[in-house]
Amino acid sequence: MAFAGMAESDALKTISYYSMGSLVCVFIFAALLKKMVRPIWANVFNAGLATLTAAAIYLYPSPLICNAGAFVIGFSAAGGILQLGVSVMSEFFPKSKAKVTSIYMMMGGVANFIIPLITGYLSTIGLQYIILLDFAFALLTFITAIIVFIRYYRVFKIPQNDVRFGERYFQ
Questions:
Q1: Which among 31, 114, 138, 162 has most CB atoms closer than 10 A?
Q2: Angle at 28 between CA 63 and CA 65, to 5 degrees
Q3: pLDDT exceeding 70 applies to what percent of the chain?
Q4: Where does the sequence pass through the membrane (predicted)?
Q5: How far apart are CA 141 and CA 92, in angstroms?
């Protein structure tokens, strides 16, 4: 079964683009998170980027969009997003860092079991539905990230000497 007019061998290359995107994200955010942005901003940015990219792949399926989209989704959805989420949740629950980490890891394990079952079924109907599912998860993540973002700036008072990129508007 083909998607976006790609042969199976070409479609397999998207995994390499995904992996490259993930690796690039790790290095970029390692530099940015030191002094420029907080993990909460990275979570919102990555979730929004993943949502837009999944929508583009679904609406305009072509080999170019799929390859570029694989890189961007690798960047936004795999490049350390788990660690960023754990970091933000640990700020909310500093006495329960181990619980936060274990909940994140358990949910990842559940997803690693359930999602292949769902996508396996969807692949029998049509591959575009897998992309649509990815879009739905990315959109849900983006909405959740915005809610956590708003809550973050209501709960935490950022000292004036530690204001970072874009935070003056949320003080």
A1: 138
A2: 10
A3: 90
A4: 15-33, 40-61, 67-89, 101-123, 129-150
A5: 18
Eight-class DSSP state of 36: T
Coil, strand, or helix at residue 165?
A: coil
Residue 127 DSSP class: T
Q: Is 88 exposed, middle or buried (0-12, 13-18, 19+ CB in 10 A)?
A: buried
Cβ-contact 46, 21 below 8 angstroms: no
- Residue 22, both tokens: 């993930």
* Closest among 155, 149, 14 to 84, alpha carbons compared: 149
Least confident of 22-26, 50-54, 90-94: 90-94
E strand map for the chain: none
Instruction: Write out the two tokens for 146.
Output: 């915005």
Closest CA to 154 of 132, 137, 171, 134: 171
pLDDT tens for residues 25-71? Answer: 989 888 888 778 888 888 999 999 999 999 999 999 888 999 999 99
Residue ranges of domains in the chain, CATH in brackets: 8-157 (1.20.1250.20)
Whether residue 162 is predicted with pLDDT greater than 80 in this model: the reply is no
